[in-house]
Amino acid sequence: MNFFLQDSDTQVTFEDQQKINTFARNNAKLQDLKDELESKKKELQNLEDAADEMLMQDGDDPIPYPLLSINY
């Protein structure tokens, strides 16, 4: 099965189209993973900053933190 691009004499075979589709799916997945990695890096930095802040606290003052959350 051959596909034709509009206003062009270029032929795209079914196999080529399958390769293009596979590449597009993998490329989209790669971008999603890059976005997730960036999000995780930001979360890690926030946690490291919070840990540093806790270490710098005076020993006399209690550190407030939530024990659990309840959603109704």
Automatic annotation (TrEMBL):
Highest taxon, organism lineage: Eukaryota
Coiled coil stretches, renumbered: 20-57
Matching Pfam families: Prefoldin_2 (PF01920)
GO molecular function: unfolded protein binding
Ribosomal protein as UniProt keyword: no
GO biological process: protein folding
Keywords of the record: Chaperone, Coiled coil
GO cellular component: cytoplasm; prefoldin complex
PANTHER family for the chain: PREFOLDIN SUBUNIT 4
Family listed: Belongs to the prefoldin subunit beta family.
Protein name as it appears in the record: Prefoldin subunit 4
